[in-house]
Amino acid sequence: MFSLSSEAKVGLFVLAGLIILGYMSFQVGKQTLGLKRGYTLDVVFENAAGLDKDASVQIAGVEVGRVESISLKEGKALVRLRITPGVKLEHDAIAAVKTHGILGEKYVELHPGTRGAAFLGPGEQISRTERQTDIDRMLNQLSLIAEDVRGVTSSLNRVLAGKDGEEAISSILTNTRDLTRNLNNVIVSNEAALRAALENTRELTGNLNRVVTQNDEKVGQVMDSLKAASSAMEKTFATLNEITGGVNRGEGTLGKLVKDSATADKLNKTLASLQEVTEKINEGRGSIGKLINDDETVRNLNEGLTGLNRYVNKAEQFRTFLSYRGEYLFDKSDAKSFLELRIQPKEDKFYILGVVSDPRGRWTTKDITTGGVTTRTEEWDRDGLLFNAQIAKRYRDVVLRGGLLESTGGVGVDYLALNDKLKLSFEAFGFGNDRRAHLKAGAEYQIFKHIYLSAGWDDFVSDQDNRSIYGGFSIRFEDDDLKYLLTTTPIPR
Amino acid sequence: MNRVSGALDRLGRAVLENVEEMGKILLLFISVLAWMFRPPLKLRNIFKQMEFVGVKSIFVVVLTGTFTGMVMALQGYHGFRMFSAESLVGGTVALGMTRELGPVLTSLMVTARAGSAMAAELGTMRVTEQIDALYVMAANPVKHLIVPRVIAGVLMAPMLTVVSDFVGILGGYFVGVHILGINSGIFIKNITRLVELNDIYNGLVKAACFGLILSLIGCYKGFNTRGGAEGVGRATTEAVVLASITILISDYFLTAIMF
């Protein structure tokens, strides 16, 4: 059986212990051992608070050494750094005390400086230091900022809190919503137009481009001629200069005029008399003066202006309608046409002027005198036009009108219903003693904005077999041009 | 009056006994130093004691060291988690083990195992008059019995401490990385960042001091045993108690001096 002596056991144990000790020492002392061979650099900080001996020295986050000692030198902190041998620092290197995070430990951060500069040797001093970001100072700044923010939020609160603010915001939002919706509508509805506009613009620029490229030569010529013109202009100016120089020296007519003292005297006198005239006018002497200085003139002028104003207002109130009406007379298989102008100076009063073409024509009476004998012939003149001229007055839904109807005296009544869309009318005219009166009853209904359908019974008590059912349509629209044409010709007084 | 003077008498006697004991231990230490370098060295004896004190204590020391490191990792983790600094657990375990727990716990275990054995062995030799026999044979008992034990204590305690440190950190690593889920690279990086060579070496110096204390007290108690088998038992107990107390008190002063 293999057994170890006590010496062997102890030896084995000690060997194992020493190996473990060596391993741990190596692991822990790896960096420190390497560092001992490094070189030292001095750096003077304004404030090295929080920096400890053996604190890390880093370049770009890589540890390159440790703080060896910290001492006081002329009221500042002299920090001696031990840097690992391979690391070189240029003369303009910068040192700063920094912190890992907010609560982390302090370390010295080095910026190596410009490449190619001379290196710092052992024991030399890094002259440039950066002011550290002090937590206290930062907190101070932060509290100031917080104060500002609180001011802003409190004023916002004052503005927005309460019913008014809420309402204001909600109305703003509503408006915005409407606005965007409208915008959207506009864009959507005008998409084609916009696209067309863009298309046009593109075409235009394309054309312009083509024009320019095609006329490149011509443009060049224009430029050349411009240049020539400018040089010519230069000459002109030179000449002008000469002329003015001459004038100045009193040469030529103009020069004499300017330089001659007699001329100046005359000018002076003229101005003086002009002044006299204006003074007279001002004092109310002479006809012009009276005109200007008389109060009555002013009043008249005022009245005139007022009248003009009234007239213009009237013209604004004025409405004119133009209408065409066609009626087909079923019993006679023929059509009757009306062309009417309705002038409406007030809402409840209007005049109707019109011409009517009746298939029967116009009842004319002719006196033909042949050899002292006068024979009266009465007949229908098929080419004759009949005229309408009526005055109408409206009382609520009823319109009463009277005057000339189809060139004979007559009256009419209209009843308007359904928001003036339906018109029931009755007309009576042609009260000749040898014929029965012409009576007409009908209805008219507005189907579109300017289109009306009509139907009725024309001349239903005729004794000449003239009665007929009719149906037709009419077109009626308001005509502004006609209105201005009418109002500018005569001036109502 | 009699009772008061009796109480005072007992108090004074106790103080005097303690001071006398301290003086005797110091004198024993001086004589150990004197005999230590006097040939023959009796290496065989020394190795035997080293085997007993060191090699045979490995198991106990590994066990206590491992579990101490593990429990430190566990407790440290809960503390550091409050600051989101879990990665510092490794460094804390390593620092605690190398500076304090390694030397102290190892020394206490060795006291319990070997210090008590020394006191019992020497006490038995004293009550069975074997020590007197050595005097008769003109062999100095300090040279033959105490010097090897003290040398073994001083040399073996640091060795055991090294083992304890190592297995303690391993235990902490196991708990921290494999159970608590701390990143292993950061765990080890923090150990090497926080622990320095001095931490380890000062821990070993402490351990050597403790080794000296425990072996010296164990030998002294055994060497001065009186009163038969009962006295041997009492000497053993006293040795362990006194050595443990002295180790813990001196640990404070050693730490204050060294760190």
Description of the molecule:
- The complex is a heterodimer of chains A (493) and B (259).
- With 493 residues, chain A is of the alpha+beta class.
- Among the domains of chain A are: 37-137, no CATH class; 316-488, Porin (Beta Barrel).
- Helix content of chain A is 43%, strand content 33%.
- Chain A is built from ten helices and 20 strands.
- A ten-stranded antiparallel barrel of chain A has the order 9-10-11-14-15-16-17-18-19-20.
- In chain A, a hairpin with a 2-residue loop joins strand 3 (62-73) and strand 4 (76-83).
- In chain A, helix 4 (191-214) crosses helix 5 (216-249).
- Chain A is elongated, with a radius of gyration of 56 Å.
- In chain A, 12% of the residues are buried.
- The mean pLDDT of chain A is 79.
- Chain B has 259 residues and is mainly α.
- Chain B has one domain.
- Helices cover 86% and strands 0% of the residues of chain B.
- Chain B has nine helices and no strands.
- Chain B has helices at 2-36, 43-53, 58-81, 89-127, 130-136, 141-179, 184-194, 197-223, 228-258.
- Chain B is globular.
- The model of chain B has no long low-confidence stretch (mean pLDDT 90).
- Classes of the chains: A alpha+beta (493), B mainly alpha (259).
- The A-B interface holds A 6-7, 9-10, 12-14, 16-18, 20-21, 23-25, 27-32 and B 43-44, 47-48, 50-51, 54-55, 58, 98, 155, 158-160, 162-163, 165-166, 191-192, 195-197, 199-200, 204.
